[in-house]
């Protein structure tokens, strides 16, 4: 069979640049393309603001970029996208479930013990109730399993343990309870929560899987950029996929060679001027008063888009240096980053200070409010500077869509506000629970609804295929501390 040849550079430049949307699925035994097809239906096929009846068709094509025969690229027709320019979009799925196999209930139990068995003072106030419930459930499970095990012991051993006089019905109930626990562990904990337990636990048993997943994600972004077919990439992560996307973006940005960045950020270049404006906006956001945060965040996000546009340009024969413009998280566990990525809030502060974990806006190398000088670039006193390795959220606009939650099982307990944890530059978009339901899987549910559900309005604006400014996307709420999806209009 003939090996396919790459498109020559000259021919590639004749092609119309497209927008690439990379979807990262969540935890569980996911099937390839399931998440992607659902999101394409919500973001394109049934969004009247994007495609009219004649342009709604999408096409499933072979995907040579991911290299997997299980995956397909979903492509669209030309429609007015960026500033009304006729463009197409290609949707890809970053499928990682096959790299996280062999989950066990014991690995989940170890992870849960690490989360729950901690000093009360290290539990964030907003998580006290789930922590108490989780601790009670873990204790009850231990008691039931212990009683069930005691039932099969010899009489003298039972007497020594003090369980020989327990009512028979209690031991029978313990046996039934332990059976249910075993079923839950094998049917849900291991295959679903096992992904989170392993990915979020950097133990020797999990390091190889974590490395493969992150490496594959960084490789995918690199291939999309090197292909020459795209001038913009949007990354959408759901559930654990949001954490994976966060890591992939961080490591992809950190791989930039300092020399390449210095060549692009030359003296008096548009990109260096855009960086300076972005740093000024970052300082204004970091030091904004409570009533000024929304306006300062809108200014920062506008400066992000301007800087990203400069990085996406090819200059003097050099290819673009970065194409990812937006990161959208749905049902994002990073709302608990202070317990999932670190031991507690103090440890998270240490790790962000060391630039192990990126924040938005990036950690400032110079923070001088008196003189209005703010820099996350270095050398801080030089005219020509480059952003540090943890500054991926300099060019990448981050929008986090989440459902409220109540009583753990209502709404989405996995998600929550990210801005208070990882930086004011994140725009949190809040969805009301809207009924007696668990909402973690509802962010693209019922895409044909007219008028659209609040979660569809939030999702479509967050992904922002038309590359609109915040004022156009969010209206009067663009400068609010957080956006309430129910108050958004039905159409842009």
Summarize the structure.
The chain is an alpha/beta fold and 492 residues long. It has helices at residues 9-14, 34-45, 105-116, 128-151, 155-161, 168-199, 204-227, 240-254, 258-264, 270-286, 293-311, 337-340, 345-353, 419-422, 454-463, 470-474; strands spanning 18-24, 58-62, 72-76, 79-80, 86-87, 89-94, 230-238, 324-330, 366-368, 373-375, 377-378, 386-387, 397-403, 405-406, 410-411, 427-431, 483-484.
Task: Summarize the SSE layout with pairings.
Layout: H1 9-14, E1 18-24, H2 34-45, E2 58-62, E3 72-76, E4 79-80, E5 86-87, E6 89-94, H3 105-116, H4 128-151, H5 155-161, H6 168-199, H7 204-227, E7 230-238, H8 240-254, H9 258-264, H10 270-286, H11 293-311, E8 324-330, H12 337-340, H13 345-353, E9 366-368, E10 373-375, E11 377-378, E12 386-387, E13 397-403, E14 405-406, E15 410-411, H14 419-422, E16 427-431, H15 454-463, H16 470-474, E17 483-484
Parallel strand pairs: 1-6, 1-7, 7-8, 8-13, 13-16, 16-17
Antiparallel strand pairs: 2-3, 3-6, 4-5, 9-10, 11-12, 14-15
Helix pairs in contact: 3-4, 3-6, 4-6, 7-8, 10-11
Task: Considering the chains and any ligands shown, give keywords for the structure.
492 residues; 9-stranded mixed beta sheet; 14% strand; disordered N terminus
């Amino acid at each position: 069979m003939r090996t396919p040849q790459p498109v020559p550079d000259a021919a590639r430049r004749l092609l119309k640049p497209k927008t690439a949307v990379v979807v990262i699925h969540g935890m569980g035994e996911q099937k390839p393309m399931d998440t992607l097809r659902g999101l394409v239906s919500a973001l394109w096929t049934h969004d009247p603001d994007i495609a009219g009846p004649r342009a709604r068709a999408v096409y499933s094509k072979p995907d040579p970029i991911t290299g997997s025969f299980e995956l397909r690229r979903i492509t669209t027709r030309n429609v007015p996208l960026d500033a009304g320019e006729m463009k197409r979009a290609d949707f890809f799925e970053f499928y990682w479930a096959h790299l996280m196999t062999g989950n066990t209930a014991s690995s989940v139990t170890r992870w849960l013990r690490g989360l729950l068995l901690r000093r009360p003072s290290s539990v964030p106030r907003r998580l006290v109730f789930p922590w108490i419930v989780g601790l009670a459930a873990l204790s009850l499970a231990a008691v039931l399993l212990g009683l069930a095990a005691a039932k099969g012991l010899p009489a003298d051993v039972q007497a020594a343990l003090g369980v020989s006089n327990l009512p028979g019905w209690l031991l029978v109930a313990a046996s039934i309870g332990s059976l249910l626990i075993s079923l839950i562990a094998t049917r849900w904990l291991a295959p679903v929560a096992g992904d989170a337990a392993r990915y979020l636990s950097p133990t020797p048993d999990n390091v190889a899987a974590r490395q493969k997943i992150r490496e594959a994600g960084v490789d995918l972004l690199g291939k999309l950029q090197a292909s020459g077919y795209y001038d913009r990439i949007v990354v959408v992560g759901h559930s654990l996929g949001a954490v994976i996307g966060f890591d992939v973006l961080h490591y992809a940005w950190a791989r930039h060679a300092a020399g390449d960045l210095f060549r692009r950020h030359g003296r008096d270049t548009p990109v260096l001027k855009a960086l300076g404006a972005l740093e000024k906006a970052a300082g204004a956001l970091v030091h904004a008063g409570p009533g000024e945060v929304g306006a300062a965040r809108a200014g920062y996000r506008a400066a992000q888009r301007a800087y990203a546009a400069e990085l996406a340009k090819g200059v003097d024969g050099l290819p673009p240096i970065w194409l990812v413009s937006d990161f959208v998280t749905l049902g994002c566990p990073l709302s608990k980053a202070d317990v999932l990525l670190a031991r507690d809030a103090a440890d998270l502060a240490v790790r962000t200070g060391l630039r192990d974990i990126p924040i938005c806006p990036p950690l400032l190398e110079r923070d001088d409010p008196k003189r209005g000088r703010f820099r996350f670039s270095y050398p801080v006193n030089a005219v020509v500077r480059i952003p540090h390795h943890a500054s991926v959220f300099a060019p990448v606009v981050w929008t986090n869509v989440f459902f409220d939650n109540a009583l753990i099982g209502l709404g989405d307990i996995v998600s929550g506000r990210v801005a208070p944890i990882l930086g004011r530059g994140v725009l949190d978009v809040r969805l009301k629970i809207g009924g007696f339901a668990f909402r973690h899987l509802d962010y693209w549910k019922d895409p044909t609804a007219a008028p659209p559900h609040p979660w569809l309005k939030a999702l479509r604006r967050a992904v922002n295929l038309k590359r609109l400014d915040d004022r156009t996307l969010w209206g009067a709420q663009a400068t609010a501390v957080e956006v309430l999806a129910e108050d958004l209009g039905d159409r842009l």
